[in-house]
Specification:
Elements lengths: L12 H4 L2 E4 L6 E2 L2 E2 L3 H10 L3 E6 L6 H10 L9 E3 H9 L8 E5 L2 H9 L3 E3 L8 E4 L7 H12 L3 E4 L5 E4 L2 E4 L1 H12 L4 E2 L6 H10 L4 E5 L2 H10 L4 E4 L6 H5 L9 E3 L13 E3 L2 E4 L2 E6 L2 E5 L6 H16 L14
Parallel strand pairs: 1-4, 1-13, 4-5, 6-7, 6-8, 8-9, 9-12, 13-14, 14-15
Antiparallel strand pairs: 2-3, 10-11, 16-17, 17-18, 18-19
Helix pairs in contact: 4-5, 6-7
Keywords: Hydrolase
InterPro entries: GNAT-like, HAD-like_sf, HAD-SF_hydro_IIA, HAD_sf
GO molecular function: hydrolase activity
Length: about 325
């Protein structure tokens, strides 16, 4: 696998990789609405032999609820094809806490279910002397919930967060995510929590083990969680441009957040992916090219596939940065 650059594939990703670890919001759907090409791409990927596990930092919902939503959007899904941050947090708990111990759960129904399923006694107060606090997002969490978590952590309970996403997308815009709520407890206690969700690769590794896969592919829309988790777990990552992180974000991505593949949407699972190559000082991807000169990104070509220009731009920008050359972010336009 390339340490820092884009990969190419002469065959469709659905046949090159045996398992897709697919993010939800921004990839399979947007809020409660379908995303163009998502159902088609996933159905045809399954038909080609690729298995799917939907991996989400959302810890508030049960896997069955997630599966029902996907099925309602013409993406037939079983509950055992969903891996939530709640399940990952419970697995992380089990690395240090014996079954039967008391755990304070601050979060939604999915987190309560996952913790109980691992054999822990769920309590609701710091006065119950929990040995750990597990915190996940739920829209009805309030000050008293965060206060109980802070009291318990101050008394020595291990603080485990389902994920550290600072924001989450809603129909009205971006709202505070679990990371913002965890930050309140961190600020009150001075204790840094352990995290089970992306960008930690914990969920990916659990999903791969569950599926018995040999060649997994991470599919996501956020560089700082989905694709950073892929890099951290040494797994190839496909960045689809249907969600949070843009094509420009990919060009400017830090090494630990860079995707290995780029695509407009999930139909990209069904086609080969070109790899940019150097030609006469330009990074060329089919009929698109890019280079960095005196810190400025230059683009050339009007490709049939607009993503080819993004691929070429990423290759040129990343090569410049990694070899110590300057790159003026202002020279990178919106792409795609």
């Amino acid at each position: 696998m390339s340490a820092r650059g884009l990969l190419g594939s002469d065959e469709p990703l659905a046949t090159r990789y045996d398992l897709a670890l697919v993010d939800l919001d921004g990839v399979a759907y947007r809020g409660h609405e379908p995303i163009d090409g998502a159902a088609e791409g996933l159905a045809q990927a399954r038909a080609a032999g690729m298995r799917l596990v939907f991996v989400t930092n959302n810890a508030s919902r049960e896997p069955e609820t997630v599966a029902d939503q996907l099925t309602g959007l013409d993406i037939p899904t079983r509950a055992d094809e969903v891996m939530t941050a709640a399940q990952a947090a419970a697995e992380l708990l089990a690395t240090r806490v014996e079954p039967g111990a008391s755990v304070l759960v601050v979060g939604g129904a999915g987190l309560h279910t996952a913790v109980r399923a691992k054999g822990y006694r769920v309590v609701g107060s710091a006065d119950d002397e929990p040995v750990a606090v597990v915190q996940g997002f739920a829209p009805d969490l309030g000050w008293s919930d965060l206060a109980e978590a802070a009291y318990a952590v101050q008394r020595g309970a291990w603080h485990v967060a389902s994920n550290l996403d600072l924001s989450l997308p809603t129909a009205r815009g971006f709202a505070p995510g679990n990371g913002s709520l965890v930050g309140a407890v961190r600020a009150a206690t001075g204790v840094e929590p352990a995290s089970a969700g992306k960008p930690s690769p914990t969920m990916y590794r659990l999903a791969v083990a569950r599926a018995g896969a040999a060649a997994p592919l991470v599919v996501g829309d956020r560089l700082d969680t989905d694709l950073a988790g892929a890099r951290a777990g040494d797994m190839p990552g496909l960045h689809v441009l249907t969600g949070v992180s843009t094509a420009r974000d990919a060009v400017l991505a830090a090494p630990g957040e860079r995707p290995h593949y780029l695509a407009a949407d999930l139909r990209a699972l069904l086609v080969p992916h070109p790899e940019p190559v150097v030609d006469g000082g330009w990074w060329v991807c089919r009929d698109a090219a890019a280079r960095v000169v005196d810190g400025g990104l230059e683009l050339r070509g009007t490709p049939v596939d607009p993503v080819d220009l993004v691929r070429a731009a990423c290759a040129a920008a990343w090569d410049a940065v990694d070899t110590g050359a300057p790159l003026d972010a202002a020279s990178v336009p919106e792409l795609g």
